[in-house]
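We emphasize that the prediction below concerns an isolated chain of 144 residues; any contacts that depend on oligomerization or on bound cofactors are therefore not represented. The input was used exactly as deposited, without trimming of termini.
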Amino acid sequence: MTPSQNTSNLTWTLLFLCWLTAMIATLGSLFFSEVMLFPPCVMCWYQRICMYPLAIIFLVALLSNDKNVFKYAMPLVLLGLFFAIYQNLLYYGILPEAAAPCSQGVSCTSDYINWFGFITIQLLSLVSFVTVFTLLIFLKRKAS
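Result of the prediction step, given as a token string:
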């Protein structure tokens, strides 16, 4: 195997992991809202707006082996990461509840799941965006 084949295989693997993470996050959020009937809050909708297109973007990049996906995926990842961090700061009480954008309807700090005493929907979203962010950084370094 040549060094360029190794780089190509690593790029494909990183793209696949990005797509897999985005798909799991997308299907997970749909499961919570459509099957478990948990209504999404305002911050959840903002994060969905960022995550759902990533599943399609990474699939197209994966199928075409596009190494330039960093340019058009990273803005959505950074925006989603910002909302995820903000929501977690609200959830853990670091930011005051008055800073929450959800004055009506479902609260951004709602506790629908609490697996093992610490895994919440807010944390799952943050982990998804951090994972995709990290994978994209590795992809950018390997592609250049």
